[in-house]
Design goal:
This protein is about 40% helix and about 10% strand. With about 350 residues, the protein is α+β, with helices and mostly antiparallel strands. Among the domains are: about 50 residues, Classic Zinc Finger (Double Stranded RNA Binding Domain), CATH 3.30.160.60; about 55 residues, Classic Zinc Finger (Double Stranded RNA Binding Domain, 2-Layer Sandwich). The chain has a two-stranded antiparallel sheet. β9 and β10 form a beta hairpin. It is elongated and about 115 Å long. One of its GO terms (molecular function) is DNA binding. Keywords: DNA-binding, Metal-binding, Nucleus, Repeat, Transcription, Transcription regulation, Zinc, Zinc-finger. It is found in: Nucleus. One of its GO terms (cellular component) is nucleus.
Length: about 350
């Protein structure tokens, strides 16, 4: 090989690349792109920017996705796009519709090993199991109350936050959830859309119907170990246990009176507030009579109807109230009273 002449430029500078047409240029670019892709294998993809939603105009709550925000919006608008094809009932969320459909199919694959009660979802079974274990993992830091059910806990938290956006137009009572308002409004309208297929009795709430149907099936899963009495509802069972223990955990802050069950406590509080949500439509024009509890109104209505549904099996007398039959009439007329003891012996 001949050596370069003295004074000539280096070989690298002497080389001139051949002219490149458009087609060969595109091929070269394609090869480079493919090589770059191969080198990039195994690298994590670039993260997409997180969705930043605007604050909910109704309650200032924020969400991490558009789907969650639109789902939340339905709690304010009342929109229920998921409709059951069997009964026409509508739901805000698809999961709620799927759970509801198990009522029609009868599918309840999750069973409790302690009491054989079954549920359509695993989450409902887990909540039920806590009624046996006594576990209450959801703790309210503001009042110290604990809960077994996360949905009940969330509703309780809203009470502390003072966020009760749903108001009754009839009486002004407010609620944290739209479904609670709808249930309450039926107390004014008298609507009872839930019908028992066994006896025809109607109810304003689906939960009341479910509880009633246990009477027909004789299903009382909650048994008192002390006296053997059975109950269809956990809340009734818990209130009954307090009759044995004497516990009265519900304290009235206004007068200091204590109660063993929450329903009696709520009725008592209404007496302080003067709140009587159950008016009599028969005598409201003349005396505007109203009551703090629904059963007070039902008892009062017997005055207008003259109905005396409680009959004595020993005689032909009948009574408007069960207590008048059991506590007064039977004891006085038919149940032999023990003779007074005497320490004097002949």
């Amino acid at each position: 090989m001949a050596s370069p002449q003295p004074g000539s430029p280096p070989l690298a500078e002497q080389y001139t690349p051949p002219a490149q047409d458009e087609e060969s240029h595109q091929k070269e670019k394609m090869v480079k792109d493919q090589t770059a892709k191969k080198r990039g294998r195994g690298r994590p993809p670039k993260a997409k920017p997180a969705f930043k939603c605007s604050t909910c105009a109704e309650c200032n709550k924020t969400f991490s996705s558009k789907a969650q925000l639109s789902k939340h919006d339905r709690s304010h608008t009342g929109e229920k796009p998921f409709v059951c094809t069997d009964c026409g009932k509508a739901f805000m969320q698809a999961i709620c519709l799927r759970i509801h459909m198990t009522q029609h199919s009868g599918e309840r694959p999750y069973s409790c090993r302690q009491c054989s009660k079954s549920y359509p979802t695993l989450s409902k079974l887990k909540v039920h199991m806590r009624s046996h274990t006594g576990e209450k993992p959801y703790f309210c830091a503001e009042c110290g109350k604990s809960f077994a059910d996360p949905s009940v806990f969330r509703k309780h938290r809203r009470n502390h936050q003072g966020h009760r956006p749903y108001a009754c137009e009839e009486c002004g009572k407010t609620y944290t959830e739209l479904k609670d308002l709808k249930n309450h409004e039926r107390s004014h309208t008298g609507e009872k859309p839930y019908l028992c297929s066994d006896c025809g009795k109607a109810f304003s709430r689906s939960s009341s119907l479910a509880c009633h149907q246990r009477i027909h099936s004789q299903n009382k899963p909650y048994q008192c170990e002390q006296c053997g009495k059975g109950f269809t509802q956990l809340s009734s069972y818990q209130s009954h246990l307090r009759t044995h223990s004497g516990e009265k955990p519900f304290l009235c802050p206004q007068c200091g009176k204590m109660f063993s069950d929450p329903s009696s406590f709520r009725r008592h509080q209404r007496a302080h507030l003067g709140f009587k949500p159950y008016p009599c439509d028969k005598c409201s024009k003349s005396c505007d009579k109203a009551f703090v509890a629904s059963w007070d109104l039902r008892r009062h209505m017997l005055v207008h109807t003259g109905l005396r549904p409680f009959s004595c099996t020993e005689c032909d007398k009948s009574f408007a109230e069960r207590s008048s039959l059991n506590k007064t009439h039977l004891k006085a007329e038919h149940i032999p009273q023990p003779r007074p003891r005497s320490d004097f012996r002949e």
